[in-house]
Amino acid sequence: MQIPQPYLLFLGDVTDPLSAKTARGIHAWRPETCVGQMHLEGCQVSLGLPELTPAQAKDQGAKTFVLGTANAGGYIPEHWMTVIKDAIEAGLNIASGLHQKLVDVPELVALAKQHDVALFDVRHHQPALKVGSGLPRSGKRVLTVGTDCAVGKMYTSLALEAAMQKLGMKAEFRATGQTGILVAGAGIPIDAVVSDFISGAAEWISPANDADHWDVIEGQGSLFHPSYAGVSLGLLHGSQPDYLVMCHEMGRPHTRHLPHHPLVEMEDCVYLNLYNARLTNPNVQLAGISVNTSNYPEEEAKAYLAELTEKFQVPATDSVRFGIDAIAEFLLHQVN
Amino acid sequence: MQIPQPYLLFLGDVTDPLSAKTARGIHAWRPETCVGQMHLEGCQVSLGLPELTPAQAKDQGAKTFVLGTANAGGYIPEHWMTVIKDAIEAGLNIASGLHQKLVDVPELVALAKQHDVALFDVRHHQPALKVGSGLPRSGKRVLTVGTDCAVGKMYTSLALEAAMQKLGMKAEFRATGQTGILVAGAGIPIDAVVSDFISGAAEWISPANDADHWDVIEGQGSLFHPSYAGVSLGLLHGSQPDYLVMCHEMGRPHTRHLPHHPLVEMEDCVYLNLYNARLTNPNVQLAGISVNTSNYPEEEAKAYLAELTEKFQVPATDSVRFGIDAIAEFLLHQVN
C-alpha cells in the first residue's frame, strides 16, 4: 500500500480542532504533500492552506483526497458522500481513516473503478502477512515505546526522523497507526492486523536495509496497558530495535481510560521493554526519554527532565518544548 | 457462538493420524459428544466410533457435522463438498477448523439457509469484541502458559479441568484454539482476533463468576516466542489469572520452527509470566508445572520433575504419564 501524494485535505464540518488531528498531523509533518484544504459550511477549523475544490486540486497536481477528520462513530456521514463522489469524479484517489470502510460502500467502489482511482482504508489492513520470524536483519532501528497510550510516540518518531536527517543520518519514519500512515503514505495499522501477525507486520514495515540506514518506528500502546499490551509486545519483538526511546506524559496519574490502573513507574517500564526487546535483539539499549511536560511550568519540567537524564544516563527532553536533537545526537555518537 | 452437540466426526480421507488430531481430541476429551464417525475411501484413521452417514447420525441425535481433520493448505477439497452438502441436507450444522471459511462458499451458505442449519468456522471470529478493561472480576481463574508453542497447553487445561472436577471443584475449560473450541462447543480463536481485542477476547471467554467457580483457560504461544508473544501477553492480561500452570517439553532445544532461537530457561519464563500477570491480578501465583517428558526414560523424567518441584516449590508432573492430580490438589488446598 502506497498512497499517492500530494493530498487535498478534507476537513468536513468539524468544529473541534482535536477532531482534525489527522489533517493537522499531515500538514505539520509533510506540508509539501498538502496541495490544499476543503471544508464544508460550518467547519471552524483551518490549516491555512488554499481552499480548493477536488477539480482545482487535481489541476494543481493533487493525487489523493484525504478524509482527515474523525466524526462520532467513525461512519461516513451521508452528506459527505456527494463530496467524496465529486473527488472520485475529479480523478482523485480517496484515503480514509474512518472505521467504516470505503470499500464497503458499493456505490464508491463502482465509481472508483469507473474512474480508475483507488480507495485506501488506512485503519484496516488487507494484504496477507507472514508470521514474524525473529531472524536478525541488517540496518539500524529505533522504536518509540511508552508508559501509556497517547504519550506522543508518533510525534516523537517524526521529530526524531527530522532531527536525525538534519544530522545527515539516513532516517526513515515507519508508520503503524492511521495518522502516521497518511503522513508517510505507507505503513500498517498494527492494531488492526490479526493477532497472529503482529510481529510479522512489524518485520514487514521495517525490512532489512543498509547498515547505516535507520528506521524510526512508530510505537503503539504500552506493555503496561491491560487493553493493548499484546500489540506493544508484538511490535517490540518484530521491530527488533537497536534503540528504544521511552515516551511519557509528566504527571499523568493513571493509565488512559482506566482510572483503576495507576501509571507504571518509568523505571519498571524501561526495564520490561528492554528485557522483552532482547528476545530479538540482545544489544538493544535505551537512547532517550521523550516527555510531554505541557501541564507543568518550564522550571519544573526542566528539573524533572534533568532527574530522568541523571537516573537513566540518556537524554531526556520534551520534544515539543525543547526539541529532540539531544536524542538524535546520542544515536549518532553511539555508532561513530 | 455455541456449537450444538453431539457431533458426527468427519475424518475425510486422511492417512496420517496427526492430521486427525482435532477429531481425536474431541473424542478423547468429550466422548459423550461423539455420536459417530464418517470416513471416505482411503482413510486409514479410525476413532473406533460407529461409522454413520449424516442421515443416520441425525436419527441418533447428532446436531453438528465436524470437519475434524486438517488437509494441506487448509482448503475444502472439492470431493468433500458432496459430503458436506449431504450433511446439510440431513439437517446437521457444519463446524470446520479449516482456514478456508465455509461462509465464503456461497453454495454452502445458500444450502444451509434453505435447511435452517448453521455454519461454524472455528478458526475465525466474527462477533464484535470490546477492548480489554483490566477491571477485577469475581471467580477464580487458572491459565496454562508455556515455554513455547505446542507444549501441551490444551491437553494440560483439559486434564486439569477433569482432575479438579474429580475433587468436587467447579472447574470449566475455556477454549482459545480451534480444537479446544470444538471440544468445548464454544470459545474464541484468540490468534484470529484483531490485535486490539486480544485481552478483550480473553475477558469475554472467562467472565465474572461465582467465588468458588474456576475457569481453566487454554493458553496459546509463549511470551518468548518472537512470532506469537503478543497473543500470549494479551491472553495473560485478559485472563486475569489467579494461578498459572507452566507447560514445557523436556529437552526441547529451540523455539518451535525457529532453530536460531534457543528455548528460554524455565526460570525466566516463570518470572516473566508472573511479572506481566501482576498487571491485572497482583495476587497471581504459580500452581504447577506440566511437562511432556515422552522423549526420556521414566527415571530421567522423574528426576527432572523432582528437580523442578524442588526449585519452584509447586507440583511438577507429566500429565499424560503421571496424571495432573497433584496440581489440582495444590489448587484445592490454596483456597481451603
UniProtKB/TrEMBL annotation, chains A, B:
Primary gene name: dgcN
Superkingdom of origin: Bacteria
D-glutamate N-acetyltransferase-like C-terminal domain segment(s): 132-327
A UniProt-annotated Pfam family: DUF1611_N
Classification via InterPro entries: DgcN-like (IPR011669), DgcN-like_C (IPR035086), DgcN-like_N (IPR035402), P-loop_NTPase (IPR027417)
Protein name: N-acetyltransferase DgcN
Domain D-glutamate N-acetyltransferase-like N-terminal: 41-124
Entry's transmembrane regions: none
